[in-house]
């Protein structure tokens, strides 16, 4: 007779494995979690945005972030949204990032609101036009890009994988949650955002 673990036990073990993996990623500095995200997106050859426990385990080993046997399975079970034995890659990567304080979320929302002139919850080139100038960008000055091209490339920094020229509040928050992981205090993070977005 096999040993069965309750859902709460799996959740606890998956949480412990995530904490261990998060610590290992943060030891690598600013590129730790971002590098892991790029690496796993590359492993996801079929673009399913999902990995099975074996792919996760092998990938972590390749990156020198090996977990103990079974920890990858616990992580997969925790983020297996449809019961097919794979983890949802984006949810997993979000879980790796340290949680943000309300002060950090508030300043990110304020910066997004400043960009989102139309107030529709999505920042587009149209929102940037007339407020920001791309005319000092070297590729604009060389004639290689139009000002809209400059804006589009700017938005691509915050955009998720699809690079559709539209940045949602969730994508903006996701981008800054990666940066937030490497700023020690709320005061420093708020000061950085205030300066960067002239809030």
Automatic annotation (TrEMBL):
Residues of the EF-hand domain: 31-66, 67-102, 103-138
Pfam families in the record: EF-hand_7
GO molecular function: calcium ion binding
Keyword match Repeat: yes
InterPro entries hit by this protein: Ca-bind, EF-hand-dom_pair, EF_Hand_1_Ca_BS, EF_hand_dom
Listed GO CC annotations: vesicle
The UniProt record lists the keyword Metal-binding: yes
Gene3D superfamilies (alphabetical): EF-hand (1.10.238.10)
SUPFAM superfamilies, A to Z: EF-hand
Keywords for this protein: Calcium, Metal-binding, Repeat
PANTHER family named in the record: CALCYPHOSIN
Protein name stated in the entry: Calcyphosin isoform X1
Organism: Phascolarctos cinereus (Koala)
Gene: CAPS
């Amino acid at each position: 007779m096999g040993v069965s673990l309750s859902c709460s036990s799996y959740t606890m073990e998956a949480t412990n494995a995530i904490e261990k993996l998060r610590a290992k990623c943060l030891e690598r500095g600013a590129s730790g979690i971002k590098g892991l995200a790029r690496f796993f997106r590359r492993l996801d050859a079929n673009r399913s945005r999902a990995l099975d426990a074996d792919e996760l385990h092998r990938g972590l080993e390749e990156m020198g972030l090996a977990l103990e046997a079974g920890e990858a399975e616990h992580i997969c079970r925790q983020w297996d949204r449809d019961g097919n034995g794979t983890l949802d890659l984006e949810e997993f990567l979000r879980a790796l990032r340290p949680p943000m304080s309300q002060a950090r979320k508030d300043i990110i929302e304020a910066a997004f609101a400043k960009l989102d002139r139309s107030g529709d919850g999505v920042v587009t080139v149209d929102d940037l036009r007339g407020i920001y100038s791309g005319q000092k960008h070297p590729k604009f000055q060389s004639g290689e890009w139009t000002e809209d091209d400059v804006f589009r490339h700017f938005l691509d920094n915050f955009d998720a994988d699809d690079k559709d020229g539209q940045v949602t509040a969730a994508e903006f928050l996701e981008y800054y949650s990666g940066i937030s992981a490497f700023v020690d205090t709320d005061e420093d993070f708020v000061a950085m955002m205030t300066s960067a977005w002239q809030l």
